Amino acid sequence: AAPAPYSLYDYGGRPAGRSLIRINSHNSAPQPHERKGDNTPHKKRGDHLYRKKASARHARRPRAGTTKSLLLFTILLRACRGLSTVLRRPLAVHALTSTAFDGALKTKDMTATVTAADLAAAEVELTSDEQDLVQVLVAAAAAQQTTVRICGGWVRDKALGRVTKDVDVALDNCSGATFAERVVEALAKGLEGGDGRGAALAASSTVGLIAANPEQSKHLETATMRICGVEVDFVNLRSESYADAGDSRIPTMAFGTPQEDAARRDFTLNALFFNVHTRRIEDFTGRGWEDLRAGLLRTPLEPRVTLLDDPLRALRGVRFASRYGFALDPGFAEACLLPEVRAALLAKVSRERVGKEVWGALATSPAGAARAVDELRRLQLASATFRGVGAAELAGAARAPDGGAVPLDTVYAADADDTGGPWLLSARCCAALAAGEAQTAAGPLPTRDATLAALACALLPLAEPGCEALDRKRRPTPLPQAVCKEGLKLPGRTATDARRVLDAAPQLAKLATRLAAGETGADLRRAAGLVLFDVQELWRCALRVARARSVAFEAANFADASAVSPADAAVANAERDFGALETALAGPTLDLDRIWATLQPHYDGNALAEALDVPKGPLIGGLMAAQREWQLAQPAGDKDACLAYLRSRVEDLRQTHGQGRRGGKSKKARR
Q1: Cα dihedral 299→301→305→311 (10° resolution)
Q2: 361 and 320 in contact (C-beta within 8 Å)?
Q3: What stretches of 262-365 adopt beta strand conformation (E)?
Q4: For residues 472 and 598, which has the higher predicted lDDT (pLDDT)?
């Protein structure tokens, strides 16, 4: 069958080839210790013109206006230096100071016009930064007599008219570490006679080594270096052989030919090379270019061999399919269904690598994330991907599409069927999220929030009450948080945010129902304010997840038991109700946007203890919580009315939180 049509859109749905902002300054890249918006001064070249280091004894206050004048002079001086560098262009390496490749010139989509027969003669359009990089690589290759080829994603994206800043370089007769040193030398020599930056650039372009780890399907030692803000990886062309036919896991690596190296890559469209000497694209598999034009993800070798070589390629295929809209080759899909591939994914691939691929697949777009989760379900990879700990350490049950419960031991069994049950519900939640985003009038979420919403939707069936995992200290942890933290090795903040969003989603769904029924009083404002205090700046993200949840958790919203896409009418109704809630929360009806930051309590703990004559302790915490609830319900209330309310609650709260006096209940008893 012909592959499905695909569209050339990058993350966020922006058209391919859209220009990037070019920052042509070697000081433009943020330092590792800097934060966005951090105005802490850092020592930079030229600072001596306006900030002189002096002892306290001899320091004196500058005259009025002196500092501003010197600062303006420094800015003009740096601009002149940059202009002189551009005019001299000894090796045209100045453009490599950008933190991203120059996107000011839009490159053409070669796949639209160039056929496989014309590929050998087709000229590749390079941006100015890419031309400079090629010149550096050619200069470094001259001393080593090395044939240098750029490979992988850069060639694929270049053919599609995209601009990318990650470059992988393949070498035919030397290691990556050796060639990286030649690059440092070429940088220094290329800038001799210029503005004196050659030695500085060479010194700052440090080389790092990523060791091979065959047990984790990392077969090659890679040299990586940052050339003036551009990340470049160097590795030699490879060939593989197996000393023992019975051991298919750990190959013996050796220098190889371009044909051998291309055959060992994940997909034919990623096995294309760009020869920096001829400046032409090379297709050594004979199928890569046509597969790229057709949007087909096909392996160079037999799919089973390719997947067992590195099982992460199954997830990479899902990510490419969701990002580019590519079709999966039927043979590749059949190989993913093999139990040995799922077992190899669990045994050989680190969870950090799994998490990186999953986050990348979910970060494409809401529609791309929906396809990624659905592909994981259909390829029987969902349970191997979204898992936290072993089945023996799980408790509770996940939600099924019909509202029933599926024990977690069944969900994560070795022979589990991922096409139905909770994973079908995950796919429905993500599909409902994408459908709602296509209809909403509120505008798209920020990139991270949109990715977090997709992740939360994928984990909604695992967020049922009592669905828990035991952490390393044998303490119960909500399973979605365990999946994020242990199964995907996502940052701690991401795991915490996912839990906040999932906790808030069902509460927001109840609020939407109450608002739709006509309720707008103090009780609704109090309940909504408490939810926003918990979820804070992620409340819009949680609202989108709640909207998707309300659609996906109703089986009647789908055509049949196996359907993934919800009915349009159900999506429209949910968008109406949750859109009204979003408007009410941010508008004058409830006026709660950023309430967690703006609401100031009438009394602090010390003032309450004195005014109500109660001792400090748990009772004060209960009174502070009661004060917040009262202020949310009575936004115009004054301090005296608030104090009178709290005085009426003292005895009830004393029963809830203990006596709060010395000699009263212990902490253990209060718990």
Answers
A1: -30
A2: no
A3: 272-275, 280-283, 296-297, 327-328
A4: 598
